[in-house]
Fold this sequence. Notes:
48% helix; binds inosine; TIM Barrel; hydrolase; alpha/beta; Ado/ade_deaminase; Metal_Hydrolase; Adenosine deaminase; metal-binding
Amino acid sequence: MDEDQIAHVADLPKVELHLHLEGAAPPALIRGIAAEKHVDLSGVFRPDGGYAFSDFVHFLSVYEAATGVLKTPADYARLTRAVLEESAANGVVYSETFLSPDFCGGGDLSAWRDYLAAIRETAEAAERDMGVTLRGVVTCIRHFGPDKARAAARCAAETAGDWLVGFGMGGDENRGEQKDFAYAFDMAREAGLGLTTHAGEWRGPAEVRAAIDVLGVSRVGHGVRAVEDPALVEELAERGIALEVCPGSNVALGVYRKLSAHPIETLRGKGVKVSVSTDDPPFFHTTMKDEYRNLARTFGWDADVLRELNRTALDTAFCDAATRTRIAKRLETP
Ligand SMILES: O=c1[nH]cnc2c1ncn2[C@@H]1O[C@H](CO)[C@@H](O)[C@H]1O
C-alpha cells in the first residue's frame, strides 16, 4: 500500500468502543493537576515524560496512582475535554469510554451522580464544538473484587439511560473468576445496559467462554486469545459476539511480540465482529490514526476494509437507534 493510501485510511471517520477514560489522560494533564494539588507522583513518569511501567500488573498500579490526582467532578471535566480533543483530532466520530464509580466517588451513588453529570456536560459541549459523540460504559475493576463491583453496578443501574449505555469489567484478569461478578452483571442487565467484560487478553479461550456463557456479554474487551480455540472462534462468529480489539495495547504490553503476530486479521477472516480501539493511548504510545496506519501497513487493510470495520463497530455500539443512524451517516462521508 502506498503512502497516499495509508494517509487516507488514517483520515477515515472512526468508531472507538474501548477507551479507559483515565487511561487516555495526557501525561501533561495529570502532571499539571498533581502540581496544582501538590501531589507527589514520583514513579509514575519516565524522565522523558511518558508513563513508566514495566509489565501489566505494574501498569495497573501506575494507572491507579495517576488516577489518584483526579479528585473532583471538575477534574473529570478537564480530563473528558482533553480526551475528546484527542479523539476529535484522530477523526473519531463516536466513542464509548469506560467510567469507574470506584474512582469517581468511591462507589457512593450520590457522588457518582455528580461526577457523571460533569463528564456528560463536558461531552455534550465537546460534541457541539468538535463533532465527537461520547457515551459512557460503567466499569467495575476485577482486582477490587465482587463487593466493589456490585456498588459500581448499582451506580450504573441508577444512572442508566441514553448517555450511560453499558456496564463492563476491566482490571487484572488473573484475579478471581468472571462468575464472581455475575450478580453485578445481572443488575446491569436488568437496568437495560449493554454488557462487555475484559477477557482473553491474558487468560486463554476458557475465559472468553465464561464471559459469554456466564456473564452473557454481547461484547468482549480484547478477547483475542479466543483465536487459540477454533470452535470458540466459530461460535463467536455465529452468535455475533463482538471483540473490542486493541492491537497497539496488546503489542505494548507484550501479549503479542509484534503486530504481524496479532490475531486480528485471522479473527476478522473467520467472520468474528472485530473493532479497533486504543485502550489507554498515551500509556501505549498510540493513537487511533497510528492504529489505522499500522493495520494498513501490516495487513494491507485499505479504506474499504476499515469502513466495513467501522460499520460493524457501530452495529455493536450500545447507543440508541437514533444515535446509531446519525453516526452511520457520518461514517459514509468521504
Ligand atoms: O488494557 C487493559 N486491560 C485490562 N484492564 C485495563 C486495561 N486498561 C485499563 N484497565 C483497567 O480498567 C480500569 C479503569 O477503567 C483501570 O483501573 C484498570 O484496572
